[in-house]
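Honest question from a wet-lab person: if I give you the sequences of every part of a complex, can you actually get the arrangement of the whole thing, not just the pieces? Trying it with mine:
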Amino acid sequence: MSKFAKKKSGELPAVSTASLPDIVFMLLFFFMTVTVMKDSTVKVENTLPNASEIKKLEKKDRVITIYVGAPTQEYQSTFGSEPKIQLNDKFASPSEVGDFILMERAKKAQELQNVLTTSLKVDKNANMGLISDIKQELRKVNALKVNYTTYEGDAFNNIN
Amino acid sequence: MKNRGETPGVNAGSMADIAFLLLIFFLVTTSIETDVGFNRMLSPIDISPPLPYNDKNILLVQVNHNNEILVDNELVDITDLRRIAVAFIDNGGATLDSEHYCDYCQGERSVFSSENPNKAVISLSSERDTGYATFIAIQNELVGAYNQLRNREALKLYGVKYTDMESEYLNVTSKGRKAKLKEKIETIKRRYPQKLSEAEIK
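Yes, you can. This is the full assembly:
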């Protein structure tokens, strides 16, 4: 009889946390695989417009990114609130785009230099004037492959 | 003197904490970046004077600084743009005896619109003050029009959507399958080439 009396029916056994590391590791690997390392801090407002009829961008090593948008709050006092171009980590004028592309192109492997795409990450509040200046500069350095990078979504959301 | 030969197991209790640290590090330093968009080819700068294009083969899409859309100088709503573009590309106005006759077009065959999808050009021009968001919305509709026609043609010829073929092309690994897909895609592209030009801002 005393054999069974030992069990205290009032206390619940503790939940085993042995599998917790496994769960956390699973999460960790998920985040490691789906995310891409940021290569430069974006200093401009960068809410891309939505579009639905889009294609996937090429591999990451074949892409040069140009950011366009109004400077974020902390930079507004020095750079104003008009949309600006950001190349790597600094603000630039349209005339510097050409040199930037040539420099970035030189950094890439020889066999990739002719297949580079310029990804334009432009804030939806920017104007076409600036884009047109950039396009003109890109044409000057013969970087003709351009991608207007967008978010996936309904394009009609852009207009209102 | 008990258990002398056996080493005690390492306590793995802190493994979860270490993994959490790593997890938080990745959460903070990374961002899920978008890598989708519209691929465009700019025209080279030292282009010889443009070839004479027949007026009826050009669909002029203008966006002004109020983000209003004018197609052939008529104000239209963005929701109508896709339909207009499809009707224009797919018109196939060339007569039966003409060398440009389009035997797969299903349009109205009006003499005032494009002769053949191969000749139909959509020219998109904007002003300096045009909003980028509107520009992208218009691009979306125009590319959508091409996709709609290409899908129709692909369904007719191969029983699959053109857009599905394209996304499959990016993922497929087998060489033979890839070559076959490419051929199909090229055929469709030849039927409805994407002649979308972005005019310079004057």
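Two things worth pointing out. The first helix of chain A runs from residue 2 to 5. The two ends of chain A are 79 Å apart (CA to CA).
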